[in-house]
């Protein structure tokens, strides 16, 4: 039996997120950064670096990671985990693209 209660919410069109950039959405759980990679994949994580809370949405996307603008930790967008040797994890959220529209489960 599933206890899943959250539903997919429409955020914006995929084109509204800059390529290799992000868009921030405010949710009950805090600010969520939705990233768009060069392959038009999208990922959503808390807009809060696991190091000292830097705004990941202002970082640079490369491949499937984003570099934090404050002290350059690299965070994997798929898992929210810092790339070694750094250790930490920011929360990830389910996000998908359907018919060119970005949907988020937060
Ligand atoms: S706050 Fe992100 S690397 Fe320090």
UniProtKB/TrEMBL annotation:
<keyword id="KW-0411">Iron-sulfur</keyword>
<dbReference type="InterPro" id="IPR017941">
    <property type="entry name" value="Rieske_2Fe-2S"/>
</dbReference>
<dbReference type="GO" id="GO:0046872">
    <property type="term" value="F:metal ion binding"/>
</dbReference>
<keyword id="KW-0560">Oxidoreductase</keyword>
<dbReference type="GO" id="GO:0008942">
    <property type="term" value="F:nitrite reductase [NAD(P)H] activity"/>
</dbReference>
<keyword id="KW-0001">2Fe-2S</keyword>
<dbReference type="InterPro" id="IPR036922">
    <property type="entry name" value="Rieske_2Fe-2S_sf"/>
</dbReference>
<feature type="domain" description="Rieske">
    <location>
        <begin position="9"/>
        <end position="104"/>
    </location>
</feature>
<keyword id="KW-0534">Nitrate assimilation</keyword>
<keyword id="KW-0479">Metal-binding</keyword>
<dbReference type="InterPro" id="IPR012748">
    <property type="entry name" value="Rieske-like_NirD"/>
</dbReference>
<dbReference type="GO" id="GO:0051537">
    <property type="term" value="F:2 iron, 2 sulfur cluster binding"/>
</dbReference>
<dbReference type="GO" id="GO:0042128">
    <property type="term" value="P:nitrate assimilation"/>
</dbReference>
<dbReference type="Pfam" id="PF13806">
    <property type="entry name" value="Rieske_2"/>
</dbReference>
<protein>
    <submittedName>
        <fullName>Nitrite reductase NADPH, small subunit</fullName>
    </submittedName>
</protein>
<keyword id="KW-0408">Iron</keyword>
